[in-house]
Amino acid sequence: MARVSDDELLQLAHILGQKLHAKGWMLATAESCTGGWLAQVVTAIPGSSAWFDRGFITYSNMAKQEMLGVRAVTLQAYGAVSEETVREMAAGVLEHSRGHISAGISGVAGPGGGTPKKPVGTVCIAWATGDQAPFSTVCRLSGDREEIRSRAVAAALRGLIELIP
Predict the structure, then answer these.
(1) N or C: which end of the chain has fewer CB within 10 A?
(2) Which domains does the chain have, with CATH numbers?
(3) DSSP string for 79-146
């Protein structure tokens, strides 16, 4: 399997941007395993400054706590790759930005780092808006590191697109 193509990611970002612009909403992101790829894709769209506020790359647990307000107890109880953590990431982004909608991503992109409970390819994504509690999903993605990361970015974009009324 190949990674999600740049063209497909840009097409998704373009659709997202159109929807955000039409609503007058700003997007903010929190990324761990994708390392800013989601923010890179949305800022590749000309005019994205009208609908993209900022992105946080919170690779370490300390960064998640300091920049997004993820609670240490959450990280200790559930780990960085958990629905609980990404929901706090998505909520924290909205508290620390001018965003109206957010996505949080954390996962095990590999090739190492997996466990029996959280094997390589486990990616948790959460989405939030100012008027509803964050919700999340766990994706089991296949492929190498780049494929897993590109699929996570695509899944985050699709979720954002679906979330905008």
Answers:
(1) C
(2) 6-163 (3.90.950.20)
(3) -SSSHHHHHHHHHHHHHTSS-SEEEEEEE--SSS---SSS-TTEEEEEEEETTEEEEEEEEE--SSHH
